Amino acid sequence: MSIDETIRQVLTDHGRLAVPVETLADDTDLFGAGMTSHASVNVMLALEDAFDFEFTESMLKKSTFESIGSIRDGVAQMTEV
Amino acid sequence: MTTWTPLGDLRVGIDLVSVEDVANSVARFGQAYLERVFTPHELASTRPDPRSGDGRPAADGLAARFAAKEAVLKVLRPGEMRPDWHTIEIRRLTDGWCDVVLTGTAADLAYGAGLEDLGVSITHEGQAAAAGAVGRCRSAPASVAPGTSGEHMSDGGAIQAPEEHEVGR
Predict the structure, then answer these.
(1) A39 interaction partners in chain B (CB closer than 8 Å)
(2) Of A17, A21, A58, nearest to A40 (Cα)?
(3) Helix or strand or coil: residue A5?
(4) Domains of chain A (ranges, CATH numbers)
């Protein structure tokens, strides 16, 4: 499964979005699409499980989780060593 | 017709959390969820779930504490930075009421806003948990000194310095 597919699967399972994740563009605002703060915690933990890392506090910005594109950037930042 | 004036130096935050959502998170992520979101004090002071059999905190109490963190966050009004969940600690007092302790980024935000007093109240009923928070700021916000935060103990006292600023109850 590609990084994008994994992110979309995590959002499907944990994002509690009001619309199907397939309909979301890379830059669609996930909070605007119905993701709550609590759901974003689940998304964060599921991403950590899927990609085997732990987000640092500096990454815990609303902008990190606000779109599929920003999540992909965050994952790339956390996995590049 | 009455025209209400702005609250001035008062800030209010409320939040509503689904108890079922929190229960599902505990079931799915277990300790990782509990330890990432809640402090040791919050976990220890939440009534155990009688159905868990292992002393695990009840989801309704956890949901109420999560709602309280969010309500406080709305008082702090962060911009881009999202404080770590542990930096907003909901403390259970011996008489049953709750207080807030801010550390790290949350404490920096409070200091920057000139927050002098902060109070929180939590409740839960059935599948809903809610919390409200009220903060009172000095009229002129202080400039933030990033990375210089200490701990905000909500047991009285004014903001003194970035290293030891306090928020009163």
Answers:
(1) 21
(2) A17
(3) helix
(4) 3-79 (1.10.1200.10)
Torsion of CA B72, B76, B81, B87, to 10 degrees: -50
Give this prediction's pTM: 0.84
Tell me the DSSP string of B103-156.
Answer: EHHHHHHHHHHTEEEEEEEEEEETTEEEEEEEEEE-SSPPPP-TT---EEE-SS
Query: B83 contacts in A (CB within 8 Å)?
Result: 60
How large is the ipTM?
0.87
- The predicted pLDDT at position A81 comes to 52
Task: Tell me how many helices (H) and strands (E) chain A has.
Answer: 3, 0
What is the mean pLDDT of the segment spanning A10-19?
95
pLDDT for A5: 94
Q: How confident is the model at residue B155 (pLDDT cuts 50, 70, 90)?
A: very low
Give residue B154's pLDDT: 45
Distance from CA of B84 to the nearest CA of A (A): 6
Q: Enumerate domains of chain B plus CATH numbers.
A: 10-153 (3.90.470.20)
Q: Do A45 and B32 count as a contact with CB atoms less than 8 A apart?
A: yes
> d(Cα A14, Cα A46) in Å, to the nearest integer?
8
Q: Three-state SS for B28?
A: helix
- Say if CB B33 and CB B24 are below 8 A apart: no
